[in-house]
Amino acid sequence: MAIRAAGTYVSKSKGSRKSKKKESSISKDRFYNLATNYFPQKFHGQTSHPKLKAKQDIDQFLMGRTFFVNQADLDSKESVYTNSPRNFHFKVNDISGNNCNSVFNGMTATKEKITSMIRKNHTLIEVNTTITLKDQSIFRVFVNAVTKKTSTSLRHYAKTSETKKIRAVIEEIIKSNCDGLEVSKLVSLLSTESLAREMEKKCESIYPINALIHKVKPIKNVACIIKSVVKDTAVENSA
Asked: Are residues 112 and 87 in contact, defined by beta-carbon separation less than 8 angstroms?
C-alpha cells in the first residue's frame, strides 16, 4: 500500500484529460453577399447573422446595414495595388436569397486626398448645397476649393468678394448638373472628376482654384424609405 502525506490528493483518472474544443460563435452564422448595381463589380464582401428559427424573418436584421467600398474595388477586380480618392457608401434595402441588395447612400473622399489639398498660405473655400433627385431623394454635396499659386509670392489668399463669387459659381454648377438626376446617373457623375474640372474652369477668371467634392451626405433617401414601408405593410397583412 502506497503511503502519501497528509493533505495531498491522488487523482483517480490516469493520463491527461481531453479538453473539449470550443466552437466559435461565427461558425454558426449564415453569410450573405453585399451587392450593388451601379458599378461593373456587383459583389463587395459578405455580412453575417446568427441562424434563426424557421418562423423568424431574417430581413429585419439585415435591412438598413451600411457599408462603403473604395471606387477602385468597384470598377474592376485588378485593383489590388491601386487606390481611388473616393469611397462610395451603400445601404441594404432588399434581401433576395443570399444577396443583400443595396442602394447608394453617399460618398466621401479619402482622408489622404482631403489633407493633401490643404496648404499653408492658401485660402480654403468650403461650399455645401442641397440637391433633389428625380425620385425626390435629397442629398447634400460638400466641396472644398483651395486657391492656386498665382505668383512667386509666398501668400496666395483670395479676397472676401472673390470667395463669395467662387461659392456662387460652385453652387450653380452643382445645382445645374445634379438636380433632377436619377441616382445611377448621379453615381456615375460623382465617380469622375468632370464636376471639379468644370468648377476650376469657370472660377479661373475670378481666382485659380483646385476643387474637390469631398462628401455627399444623404438627407432623405427615398429608396430606403419606400422599401421599409412596403416591408412593414407586408408583415402587417400577413399577421
From this structure: no
What letter does residue 39 receive in the DSSP assignment? S
User: CA 181, CA 28: separation in Å to the nearest integer?
Assistant: 43
C-alpha closest to that of 123 among 206, 54, 182: 206
Q: What is the dihedral of CA 26, 80, 84, 91, to 10 degrees?
A: -30
- Bridge partners of 109? 86
pLDDT of 63-108, one tens digit each? 889 999 999 888 875 544 467 889 999 999 888 888 999 999 999 9
User: Bridge partners of 49?
Assistant: 30
Instruction: Name 105's Cβ contacts closer than 8 Å, sequence gap at least 6.
Output: 66, 89, 90, 91, 218, 221, 224
Which residues of the chain are modeled with pLDDT < 50?
Answer: 79-81, 229-230, 234-235
Domains in the chain (CATH in brackets) are 27-107+223-232 (no CATH), 111-222 (3.30.479.30)
* Distances from the Cα of 42 to the Cα of 39, 45, 59, 69, 107, angstroms: 7, 10, 20, 11, 17
Nearest-angstrom CA–CA distance, 29 and 49: 5
Q: What is the pTM of this model?
A: 0.79
